[in-house]
Write a structure and sequence with these properties.
binds zinc ion; mainly alpha; 3-stranded mixed β-sheet
Amino acid sequence: MATESTTSRLRVLLAEIVDLKNVVSLLEWDQQCCLPPSAGEGRAEQLGTLQRLVHERVTSDELGREIDRLAESTRGLDPDADEVRLAAVSRRVRDRLVRVPADLVAEIARVTGVAYGEWARARSESDFARFRPHLERIVDLKRRLADCFAPYDHVYDPLLAEFEPGMKTAEVRGIFDRLRGPQAALIRSVAARAPVDDGFLRRRFDEAAQWAFATEVVGELGYDWARGRQDKAVHPFTITLGADDVRITTRVAADFFPSCLFGSIHEAGHAMYEQGFDPAFARTPLADAASLALHESQSRMWENLVARSLPFWEHFYPRLRARFPGVLDDVPLLAFHRGINRVSPSLIRVEADETTYNLHIMLRLDLEIRMLEGTLAVKDLPAAWNEGMRQHLGMVPPDDAHGVLQDVHWAGGSIGYFPTYALGNLVAAQLWERIQVDLPGLDEDFRHGRFGGLLAWLRKSIHRHGAKFAPQELVRRVTGSPIDPAPYLRYLEGKLAAVHGS
Ligand code: ZN
């Protein structure tokens, strides 16, 4: 058994690190929600300083010794015991940082802090040249980061591992290769059918009423407002500032209804995952998601498998109509359901439908890999983007704001992040097949506005475990197989047949 002193000293060290990370998150939240226009550089310095402190704490010899002591004292215990997993996860997190010099960490924080503001201005002016030198520095720094983990099979592997522990570039490419053909065929089959009308989604929806409706809905799904809040942001995100402070953000467009509601449900899906970690894991590395794909599986499940289903709207549609008097009077429930499930290639990833979404990700993965390999120069990125859009989705952006500048990820230094979105789609569908077996009365629950059964299943199967299990291990424990594209393709086929008629 672990002695009390071993466990408590380690817990103090880990708790202080988590506290520092949460302060970093608070500064980042503030940066994206409230920062004055000229405060970007000063904030970048603050973030650089704090990241350096976190790095020093995580890589300290004392923490290494305490993790070793815990591992030693728990040897022979059940491998699933929390303390055994705490030692293993703490060691994995520490080992990853030990390899990276503190100066490089601080440099990345400084450069991306400045790049964020420049990206936001470049995007609003559709001026890629303004962002280009910042992205060049980021790609260079990320290559240096990857080199800290040499030797590797592929330069992209160490970057992917930051978001998806244990996943290799070759594996992701393999999964995407299995998806590409069937997804393209599904899109072609939809294009051959009569188009679905979704024009009513672009009518004028009062912004305050959208905000109020979204607030109401995510609360009923299970987002705990006593342990969170919602603000506006250019690029919506969820952020955790503590075990009882998990915040979401959204954007509201008066002339595009889905942005606010489905965006809020998406972020609430992320937030409910973090609100559901075992409270005993608080202020330890176990109070974290298993991976970003697991994270995205939760947001996608609530956004698409739940909130675009017919039973969900059998419950909510009368209330939606009442909230926006007159706006949807001529749109029957079934027409509304078809409209929110319309398949149509779009320029903007965050507005893409379920069927075309993964093609946006395949494009980004391809470009990231080529930039890192050095086979695509940053100056040539806009042209490569536009060519990829033409090939993958048959359309070319009118300007860079609607093309290569649309996403915040590269400005934030998050190279290796995009594939986790597509993997999350796959995991969501894979979990959903299991849920249908375990909870056969789910449709009836939704029709009556009961979402607690689903949330309880997710809490028990996924949320409460936090980072205790590696992503592939967790998916296998729950579904019996590793991440697999087949359930997602089955789900899409079923959805399209229901919406378009088979
Ligand atoms: Zn997400």
